[in-house]
C-alpha cells in the first residue's frame, strides 16, 4: 500500500531464510497468495500443513475497531522510517516456560513476548508512532488458546489497556534484566526491584504503570526494541534517555536537558551503547539518577 516505505523498514530480522537443503530463500509477501505459499513451502522443506496455516494467517482479514481517531495530518511518508521487532523475547517464545511472581508480574515465558512496531522521523530521529502487541497475555480456559492485548501512542494520543495495579508496596519499582543480580542488590536498598525477561516486556511494564522505571546499564538494547514503546511513553509524557549521558547531566540542568537526552532512531548505529532509562514520570527519573550518583559503584558496563 505504501511502496515508498519499503526501503525504510528496519529491524532485527530479515526476510532471507536457509532451509535444511542449505538453500537461501527470500520470502516476499505480495498480492499473489499462491506465490507466497510456494515460497513458504520452500522455506519449510515441503511442510504443506504449516505452509498453508502461515499463508492463511498472512492473507486473513483482521478487523480492529480504533479506540480514537489517531490520524496525524502533517505526517509525510517521505519523512518517516519504521523499526520492527517481530518477536521480542525470542528465547521466551521458544522455551514457553511461564513464571509469574507473587504480584502477578510475568518473569519469563510466553507472557514476556511482544511484537514491536515503531515509526520515527528520519530527519530528527524522534519516535512518532508506536504499536505494541503482547499476543500471549492471558491463557484462556481450556489451556489451548491465548488472549492478547495491545497498546499504541501517536503525538499526545494513546491507548493503553487497563491492568491491575502492582500490589508489591509503596516504593518505586525498577525493572532490571534477570542477568543484573549485583545491580539488583544495590538498588533494592531503596527500590522494589523486578527482574524479568524481554526488553519490550520490561518497557511495557512501565507503559502499563506496573513499574515506574526500567534501567539497563549495558549496551544490549537496539532501536527495534525501544522505538515503539518510546513513542507510546512520549505520548504519555514519559520517555527513554541515554543512561550514561543522563548520569553526566547536572541535576539542576536535567529538566531542560531531557529532550536532548532522549534516544533517537535515525542513525546507522542501531545499538543503544550507553544503556537506557525508561520512565513515565520525570520525577521518578530524577529520583533514580540522584540515588545512582550517590552510589558511584553502580556504573555502566
From TrEMBL:
EC number from the UniProt entry: 3.1.3.57
List, alphabetically, the SUPFAM superfamilies matched: Carbohydrate phosphatase
Q: Which UniProt keywords apply?
A: Lithium, Magnesium, Metal-binding
Q: Which Pfam families match?
A: Inositol_P
Source taxon at top rank: Eukaryota
> Catalysed reaction per UniProt?
1D-myo-inositol 1,4-bisphosphate + H2O = 1D-myo-inositol 4-phosphate + phosphate; 1D-myo-inositol 1,3,4-trisphosphate + H2O = 1D-myo-inositol 3,4-bisphosphate + phosphate
Q: Which family does it belong to?
A: Belongs to the inositol monophosphatase superfamily.
Specify the protein name: inositol-1,4-bisphosphate 1-phosphatase
Amino acid at each position: 500500500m505504501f511502496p515508498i516505505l519499503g526501503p525504510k523498514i528496519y529491524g532485527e530480522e530479515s526476510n532471507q531464510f536457509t532451509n535444511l537443503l542449505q538453500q537461501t530463500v527470500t520470502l516476499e509477501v505480495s498480492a499473489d497468495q499462491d506465490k507466497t505459499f510456494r515460497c513458504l513451502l520452500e522455506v519449510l522443506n515441503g511442510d504443506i500443513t504449516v505452509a498453508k496455516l502461515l499463508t492463511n494467517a498472512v492473507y486473513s482479514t483482521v478487523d480492529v475497531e480504533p479506540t480514537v481517531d489517531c490520524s496525524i495530518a502533517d505526517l509525510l511518508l517521505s519523512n518517516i522510517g519504521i523499526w520492527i521487532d517481530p518477536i521480542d523475547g525470542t528465547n521466551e517464545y521458544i522455551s514457553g516456560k511461564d513464571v509469574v511472581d507473587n504480584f502477578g508480574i510475568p518473569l519469563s515465558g510466553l507472557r514476556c513476548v511482544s511484537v514491536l512496531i515503531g515509526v520515527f522521523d528520519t530527519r530528527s530521529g524522534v519516535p512518532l508512532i508506536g504499536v505494541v502487541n503482547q499476543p500471549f497475555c492471558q491463557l484462556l480456559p481450556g489451556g489451548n488458546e491465548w488472549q492478547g492485548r495491545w497498546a499504541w501512542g501517536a503525538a499526545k494520543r494513546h491507548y493503553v489497556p487497563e491492568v491491575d495495579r502492582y500490589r508489591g508496596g509503596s516504593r518505586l519499582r525498577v525493572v532490571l534484566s534477570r542477568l543484573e543480580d549485583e545491580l539488583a542488590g544495590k538498588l533494592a536498598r531503596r527500590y522494589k526491584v523486578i527482574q524479568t525477561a524481554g526488553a519490550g516486556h520490561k518497557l511495557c511494564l512501565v507503559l502499563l504503570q506496573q513499574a515506574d522505571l526500567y534501567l539497563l546499564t549495558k549496551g544490549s538494547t537496539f532501536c527495534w526494541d525501544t522505538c515503539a514503546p518510546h513513542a507510546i511513553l512520549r505520548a504519555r509524557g514519559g520517555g527513554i534517555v541515554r543512561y550514561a549521558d543522563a548520569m553526566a547531566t547536572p541535576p539542576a540542568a536535567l529538566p531542560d536537558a531531557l529532550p536532548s537526552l532522549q534516544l533517537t532512531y535515525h542513525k546507522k548505529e542501531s545499538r543503544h551503547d550507553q544503556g537506557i532509562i525508561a520512565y513515565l514520570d520525570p520525577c521518578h527519573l530524577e529520583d533514580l539518577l540522584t540515588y545512582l550518583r550517590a552510589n558511584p559503584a553502580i556504573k555502566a558496563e
